[in-house]
Amino acid sequence: MRIEDVPESxxxxxxxxxxxxxVFEVVTDTVRMPGDEAADRDYVVHPGAVAVVALxxxxxVLLIRQYRHPARRLLWELPAGLRDVxxxxxVDGAARELAEEAGYRAATWHTLTDLLTSPGMTNxxxxxxxxxxxxxxxxxxxxxxxxxxxxxxxxxxxPLADAVRWALAGMIHNSPAVAGILAAYAASAEGYAxxxxxDAPEA
Length: 203
Hints:
Elements lengths: L11 E9 L4 E9 L3 E9 L3 E6 L5 E9 L4 E5 L2 E3 L7 H13 L1 E13 L8 E12 L18 E5 H9 L6 H14 L7 E2 L6
């Protein structure tokens, strides 16, 4: 048997918007289930996001620390952001986030992994990229203004192997960070040769 997630959509017999905010909305769909029974499913409609595992030539990964109010924690994360620019490709969005949040650009990009962050409660998708051959962006070229949680956000380079240990020890909790760190470590065993191109389609 081939183990692969595939698209599927069961009949929605009714849908009701419960909440609409700046980033996401909450809806209730009444879904036709097997046995011809209908059941309500509440979920968050989300625009999706991109994240970046940026690795330097010393096999260090770039992490940022950001306050996340719902979790009431300061979390170590990857540079990441919403898919909120019309017409922007996923890799271009990732490059923008790497530049804005960390001040780096990368010459080499690959698709690292694709995530459904919590498929029982949201349709949010995150594509995590691997970015290498990094160079810092000169201060004169950096015009992004950090606001809110991004003000004073620390940026740290940590050995990838250490980041793996911290993720497995429960010291790093952000889901794309954990998935990206572990995926990058696994892919490094084959020199990243099996990774998909940066413009690989989402299934």
